[in-house]
Design brief:
It contains nine helices and eight strands. It is mostly helical. The protein folds into two domains: 73 residues, no CATH class; 263 residues, no CATH class. A two-stranded antiparallel sheet has the order 1-2. The chain has a two-stranded antiparallel sheet with strand order 3-6. A hairpin with a 4-residue loop joins β1 and β2. α1 crosses α2. It is rod-shaped, with a radius of gyration of 32 Å. Keywords: Membrane, Transmembrane, Transmembrane helix.
């Protein structure tokens, strides 16, 4: 199979020329047979020399090649659409760039990135977390009590939820990169299989047949907590450890069962070309479904972090938090599982920061 995606346009052009060449020969032979049948001299064709056959073919080609070429012009355009698929490298780079965030959010115990199995050890920033209550034992006042009760206890849990949120963002990036990598391979292989079918035809087989096993089915979909099962099932879920709530996502379902293989076949070059057109459309539709699924995972994640849950069976749609529909349910407690409440100290001024309502004064 090919790995020459960069040459898709030139290879598609050469493939179309091959279709035209073989279809001209096919149509010429049909025309010769019709003419001989009408003349009643069916045995005359067997007496033709190779030179006479070549001359008759050239005469036919000069007259009809332009029209026959127009039958296949759309194939070049269809491959033009597939020649500029996204480069997977930037997506992988973006995913790798989130490793640093995972290391910082791994908390005092460390966590595992379930997208790729990477184990992140305890984060240095959390080393003294367990000692903070002792260190602050002499700090009193409203802000002190709020900090000790509302910020320190849930800090590790919130960091873990943020870790999982970053994992859930990394995973679609990885999935998208893998999808486009395999899509590029599939496009290259599609041309190879079309050439193979034409070779079967020109080699004298009664019916040309070539089969492409699609690589993109392996890209369904490496989102967080979604083990790949061959495209038959997928359910994004994560349970908030140590929390009273559980957030379940990807209610949008999963991509439809994909085409696992595409057949390129036919009894003539024109028939083979039609099966190629069908295969290209199936490939494009599969890519669109994959893209839609991945984008919905990201939107579902955004919904959850913002505390919004769509009505059951409603797919997430692009929106900013102020524009959620009234049917969405909102949970502030869910928001605080990803981000601690705004500290009162954030609104303090130099003139009142030591008041009991803020820092207070040690006693």
């Amino acid at each position: 199979m090919s790995d020459n995606y960069g040459d898709i346009r030139s290879e598609a052009k050469a493939l179309v020329e091959k279709f035209v060449e073989l279809e001209v020969e096919h149509q010429a032979m049909l025309a010769f047979n019709r003419a001989l049948a009408e003349s009643g001299d069916l045995d005359d064709i067997h007496s033709w020399t190779n030179e006479k056959k070549a001359l008759e073919l050239q005469v036919y080609s000069d007259q009809w090649r332009g029209e026959i070429a127009s039958w296949f012009a759309d194939i070049t355009e269809m491959f033009d659409d597939l020649a500029d698929l996204p480069d997977p490298a930037p997506l992988r780079s973006e995913a790798e760039g989130l490793y640093g965030a995972l290391a910082l959010l791994a908390g005092p115990s460390g966590h595992t990135d379930i997208a790729d199995g990477t184990v992140h050890g305890p984060a240095e920033a959390f080393e003294k977390l367990s000692a903070i209550p002792t260190m602050l034992v002499d700090w009193e006042g409203h802000a002190a009590e709020a900090f000790k009760l509302n910020f320190i206890p849930p800090l590790e849990r919130v960091a873990f939820h943020e870790f999982e949120a970053v994992v859930s963002l990394r995973s679609p990036l990885i999935a998208a990169a893998y999808m486009w990598e395999k899509a590029r391979e599939d496009v290259s292989n599609l041309i190879d299989e079309a050439n193979s079918a034409l070779d079967d035809y020109s080699g004298g087989k009664d019916s040309a047949d070539a089969v492409l096993a699609l690589g993109i089915i392996g890209a369904i979909v490496a989102v967080a907590a979604v083990p790949f099962t061959g495209g038959t099932s997928a359910a994004l879920y994560w349970t908030m450890a140590g929390s009273a709530i559980a957030v379940t996502g990807a209610v949008v379902g999963h991509p439809n069962e994909p085409e696992k293989q595409l057949d390129i076949s036919g009894d003539s070059p024109a028939d083979i070309a039609q099966s190629l057109r069908d295969a290209i459309w199936k490939l494009k539709l599969q890519l669109l479904e994959h893209e839609l699924f991945i984008s919905r995972q990201i939107r579902t994640l955004s919904d959850q972090i913002n505390g919004y849950t769509a009505p059951k069976g409603t797919p997430p749609i692009p929106r900013d938090p102020p524009y959620y529909s009234t049917e969405h349910s909102y949970s502030e407690s869910t928001v605080h599982e990803f981000a601690l409440p705004r500290p009162l100290l954030a609104d303090a001024t130099p003139g009142n920061v030591n008041d009991d309502g803020y820092l207070g004064t040690p006693k």
